[in-house]
Amino acid sequence: MPKLNLVDAINLALRQEMERDERIIILGEDVGKNGGVFRVTDGLQKRFGEHRVVDSPLSESGIIGTSIGLAQAGLRPIPEIQFEGFLGPAYDQITTQAARVRSRSRSALTCPMTIRVPVGGGIHAPEHHSDSPESIYAHTPGLKVVMPATPYDAKGLLTSAIRDNDPVIFFEPKRVYRTYKEEVPEEEYTIPIGKAKVVQEGTDLTVITWGAMLFQCLEAIDQLPEEVSVELIDLRTIYPIDIDTIAESVRRTGRAVVVQEAPKTCGLGAEISALIMEHCFLHLQAPVQRVAGYDTCMPYYKLELDYLPDATKIGKAIKDCLAY
What we know:
Number of strands: 14
Structural class: alpha/beta
Number of helices: 12
Low-confidence stretches: none
Number of domains: 2
Helix content: 25-40%
CATH class of the largest domain: Alpha Beta
Shape: globular
Order of helices and strands: EHEHEHEHHEHEHEEEEHEEHEHEHH
Distance between the termini: 45 Å
Radius of gyration: 19 Å
Mean pLDDT: 96
Strand content: 15-25%
CATH superfamily of the largest domain: Thiamin diphosphate (ThDP)-binding fold, Pyr/PP domains
Largest sheet: 5 strands, mixed
């Protein structure tokens, strides 16, 4: 079984799904000849031709609007937005068109498309290239939002997203595109959208996270005293959120820390904290702790790592929660 990084696993999933279903079309800025800015679609245009892997104009609204039309016409488009900061020009198309097709048509029509978007900081990118807007789209009814952290999960979740009959935003944490490898089966497999993963079992406290922060949490846990037993949950799907897995864990441990890369205010961590209060209040031994980015724009690269949650900040939150 080959060991793949996130880029290779996503590329493999795209290739296998395109071979399986001729209705699948990839479109976006530089996705064809150049293989995408991060080379995630490398080799696909050569394999499937320019009619199925299409280099688009520099127009995010056009890319998504065209994809919605293709989906309505019976195809299954996979548009790529080069960086998450460029989702803004396509926001109207995503939230008022793609997300509402099923509701507007009373399920007579669906919009089967998967919007691939590199997301997050940690790579010393310029402005508009390092944000974490997942809570914005999780707040939009009609959209499914996915963010895998590992190559194995990325392949299985992307396959599920492509086969889904509703629009899925597939966020790819660019910080870990090439930093981690693991065994990924060559054969096709799926991972259900909406199901979190217990990465590590524990009894004293539950840590909930997603995306690149998974690896910062693992580092923080490794630095704790051996007698501290931490359960670590990777959401994998931002919406629909797997509250059952979260609640089952927190009811056992009695304590929770939520770690997100995005700014703290109105982030997904706040929603998870509220859900824990609703489902686990009588089991809690301490207030839910949140570790997050600051309520500022992502700074330029000299301050970028000071902005992002790291093992030190996460470890402090865990110790504070345990000491309450």
